[in-house]
Every structure is written in C-alpha cells, then in structure tokens.
Design brief:
alpha/beta; 8 strands; globular; binds 3-hydroxy-3-methylglutaryl-coenzyme A; binds magnesium ion
Length: 303
C-alpha cells in the first residue's frame, strides 16, 4: 500500500461544473477566463467544453467559441465531452486535444442522460473512436453511476468491470470511474477497484467523485492507496449532474490539492493561485445567479 509520487489532476469544472448551473448560462468570456486561470495555476489537463445537444444542455452550447477563445498553454490538454460523431466533428473543428465518451453502469441513468441503452451508447462510440484515432485524438471514457444510481440504486461492480473492459478494448486510453451522485464510501470504492482491476490495469483508471455526503476526499485517499494516480476535480467544487437530481458538486480541486500537498504527492499545481481562481469564479457565479449559488458555493478561503 504505497501512495503514488505524482498525481494527474483532470480539471472538469468548466464542463462538469458549469453544465450544471440551473437556469443560468455563464457568459463565454467568463468560461474562457476561467480556463486560462486554471492553466496559469499549473493544471495541465482541463475538460474545457462539451459538444452535446444544446437542447439537452444549453449551458454548454458555446463550446466552439470557448475553444477558440482560450489561450492555449503548450503543455496542457484541452478536452471535450462528445456523445456521438456529431460531437466529435465539432470537437475536431475546435481543435480539442482530446475527447471523452460517456456512458453509465445503469440502464436507467443511460436512458435519462443520453437517451439510449448502454449497448447503443457503445455502438455510437465505435465510429467516434475510429475517427478520433484517425485524427490522432486520444479518447477518454467515462462510466457514470459506478457506486450507485439515482434510479436503479445499487450497482453491481461486475457491470462496471465489463463496461470498463469493453471501452478499453474499443480504444479508450483511460476510464474515469464516476460516482455521479456521490454515494460511495471508502470501503465500497476500494471493493469496486478490486473488481475492475481484475480486468483493467489500474494505470488506465481515474477516479471521479462527487461530494454529496462529504465522502469524496476519504474516497480519494482510499483509491490512492489502491494505486489510482489520476483524479478528476472541479474548481470551487462546482458541479452536479443534470440527470441525477440531488447530486452535489464534484470534489473541489483546491481541497484535493491541499490533501495531496500534505501527502507529499506532486501535481505541479500552485495551491495559492488555485484558491484565487476558486474565489473569482465563485464571485462570478454569485453575480450572475444571485443568492442561490452564493449559498451553494463555499470558497475555500480558510485554507
Ligand atoms: P437525442 O435527442 O436522443 O438524439 O440526443 P438525436 O441524435 O435525435 O439528436 C436530437 C437533436 O440534437 C438533433 O437536433 C441533433 O442534431 C442534435 P434537431 O434535429 O432536433 O435540431 N444533436 C447535437 N447537437 C450538437 N452536438 C451534438 C449533437 N447530437 C445530436 N453532439 C444526445 C442524444 C446524446 C445528443 C443527447 O442525449 C445529449 O446531448 N445528451 C447530453 C447529456 C449530457 O451532456 N449529460 C451531462 C454530461 S455526463 C456527466 O456529467 C457525467 C460525468 O461527469 C461523469 C460522472 O459524474 O459520472 C461525465
Ligand atoms: Mg461528473
């Protein structure tokens, strides 16, 4: 049980965070400033946009403008979520460095989220992954609801395992395991990894925790002990999931960084800078969304 010396943080705030601002479209220039500030703080893997149906997720409709407006750090990866070929084409036009496909371990959640079955979602990924590879674009995979589903309840780890194996065989270089509604606890997270790593090497897995019950940091520590070295995080703990009512924000990047710094794990990210970004985006959201968001967001000023 040794902790990794280095961790790659995948910042999902501009996508997973801002996609979930209810009834509130964040101006494109705020998104661009946010992404630039995140890369200035040292983050080198940023999910910057989502090329999904604007009817489903209007908050992400300006993906192309965001991608063309950002100042690209030469060492940073700017990724986008793509559910289908149409999304991939937009991501290619926007010169994304990476795309991500997403499905779930629960049939009910997959239907609500992407309007198809799990099997159909994999069928959609096949041409997408082929075309991405032909364009030298790496494809990341997400499996949602790995530790519980808002509609189906408990999820069998064997369902997660076979889905991860299939997506790796299809050509995803890494699978992010999503505790979409934040119901996981450290023991369950470890047990899930024990099941999945029987079929997929730990080096190809990432952890994506939401913090509904305040378990995210404990879960992250548990999976670090199992050998996970890629963690999805969201600045200021922004986020949730539009198709998982009650899912609270993703684990906050600055909280994870504070813990990793304390453990002597290198990320290359500057905590002081990140805290400033957290304050700034919280203020922007308070301004554009009124008191509801002001209550939901707690800037990490006390660190
Ligand atoms: P659909 O309605 O079943 O499919 O949507 P469709 O192919 O019939 O398309 C309907 C309309 O959308 C058409 O437009 C298409 O052109 C358009 P119309 O003819 O009606 O004018 N369309 C698109 N437009 C732009 N970009 C596209 C695109 N595709 C179709 N790529 C679809 C199926 C998957 C598109 C839809 O269900 C969708 O966009 N869902 C979005 C789901 C989503 O973004 N959820 C949140 C992200 S997942 C998440 O947050 C979890 C994660 O963080 C991990 C975790 O926490 O677990 C990743
Ligand atoms: Mg998420």
């Amino acid at each position: 049980m040794t902790l990794p010396k280095q961790v790659r943080l995948v910042e999902v705030g501009p996508r997973d965070g801002l996609q979930n601002e209810p009834g509130n479209i964040i101006p494109t220039d705020i998104k661009i400033d946010l992404i630039n500030a995140l890369s200035d703080s040292g983050l080198r893997h940023i999910e910057a946009a989502s090329f999904v149906s604007p009817k489903w997720i209007p908050q992400m409709a300006d993906g192309s403008a965001v991608m063309s407006g950002i100042k690209r750090h030469p060492d940073a990866i700017y990724a986008a979520l793509t559910p289908n070929l149409k999304g991939l084409e937009k991501a290619l036009e926007s010169q994304c460095d990476e795309v991500a496909v997403f499905t779930a371990a629960s049939e009910a959640f997959t239907q609500k989220n992407i309007n198809c079955s799990i099997a159909e979602s994999l069928e959609r990924f096949t041409p997408l992954i082929e075309k991405a590879k032909a364009n030298n674009i790496p494809v990341r995979g997400y499996v949602s609801t790995v530790l519980g589903c808002p509609y189906a309840g408990e999820i069998n780890p064997s369902q997660v395992t076979s889905l991860c194996r299939e997506m790796i065989e299809m050509g995803c270089y890494e699978i992010s395991l999503g505790d979409t509604i934040g119901v996981g606890t450290p023991l369950k997270a470890k047990q899930l990894l024990e099941a999945v790593t029987k079929e997929v090497p730990i080096q190809q897995l990432a952890a994506h925790f939401h913090d509904t019950y305040g378990q995210a940091l404990a879960n992250i520590y548990a999976v670090l002990e199992e050998g996970i070295s890629v963690i999805d995080t969201s600045i200021a703990g922004l986020g949730g999931c539009p198709y998982a009512q009650g899912a609270s924000g993703n684990v906050a990047t600055e909280d994870v960084l504070y813990m990793l710094n304390g453990l002597g794990i290198d990320t290359g990210v500057q905590l002081d800078e990140l805290i400033k970004v957290s304050h700034w985006i919280s203020q922007q959201l308070q301004r554009s969304n009124g008191s509801k968001v002001a209550l939901a967001l707690t800037p990490k000023s006390s660190i």
